[in-house]
Specification:
Length: about 250
């Protein structure tokens, strides 16, 4: 379990945003838009990053690429030797330091409006988990501090009633159940042997189905809010962003 958790954390740092998740939180765990921005063209286009800003973020993107290669060489399917906990801890520390460096670089470069839009997308990416208790993560996981902050902000702003919380939870549980079935039907459920690469076409098809399930569920969630809450929510998340654009294209 430790290995699965750690690999997920590093893969998210690398810009991997799975919509066919192993975790209940979907694409929410560890998703930091500040870390994704230097290497994600869709995000850059959405917040209208200028050529000058892209140039300033290139060193951060290059460092991310170097780290990702180092991690893949050490722990990827073709890595020599077995799993080393000490080496992994070393990589986790390096990851955390680099993430802070990248986030500082992004914060220094962006305008106030760009930061606002990036934050809106970050809240969207947290998915239904945004309504959870930030201090009680499922399965022994712990929410990243940046995500906890967003969850606390949402909770304080919306002030959902107990009945609304139950409605949202039931909707989210339904999405997880249906998403699990989609994965299983596509042969993507459970753990796969080391070095195994899922069929890209099956991954894309499953992702598209799960995306549709989520979109339909979000309509139900928003419908459960009163008019004041809906207005507040709209201000917090802005216009919908296609989160599928945060995923890398599966390699054939």
């Amino acid at each position: 379990m430790r290995m699965i958790r750690c690999v997920l954390a590093v893969s998210l740092f690398a810009g991997v945003v799975p919509a066919v998740p192993a975790q209940p939180a979907g694409i929410a765990f560890g998703n930091d838009m500040n870390v994704l921005l230097p290497t994600n063209a869709a995000l850059q286009a959405e917040i209208k990053l200028t050529a000058e800003q892209k140039g300033k973020l290139k060193p951060a993107a290059d460092k991310q690429a170097a780290f990702n290669k180092e991690f893949t060489d050490a722990f990827g399917p073709n890595a020599a030797g077995g799993f080393s906990p000490d080496k992994f801890d070393e990589m986790r520390e390096k990851q955390a330091k680099l993430a802070e460096e990248v986030k500082k670089a992004v914060d220094d470069v962006l305008t106030a409006d760009q930061r606002k839009r990036l934050k809106q997308i970050a809240i969207q990416a947290i998915d239904f988990t945004v309504f959870n208790d930030p201090d009680v993560a499922p399965g022994g996981f712990e929410y990243p501090e940046s995500q906890k902050g967003a969850m606390k902000e949402i909770g304080a702003a919306l002030k959902l009633s107990d009945e609304q919380k139950k409605t949202v939870k039931d909707i989210a549980d339904g999405v997880r159940k249906e998403s699990r079935k989609i994965r299983e039907d596509a042969g993507l459920g459970g753990l796969v042997p080391a070095g195994t690469v899922p069929d890209p076409e099956k991954v894309v098809a499953a992702n598209e189905k799960i995306d549709e399930v989520r979109k339909e569920a979000w309509v139900k969630v928003v419908a459960a809010l009163d008019e004041t809450q809906k207005k507040t929510w709209k201000g917090l998340v802005g216009e919908p962003f296609d989160l599928a654009k945060l995923r890398p294209t599966p390699k054939k």
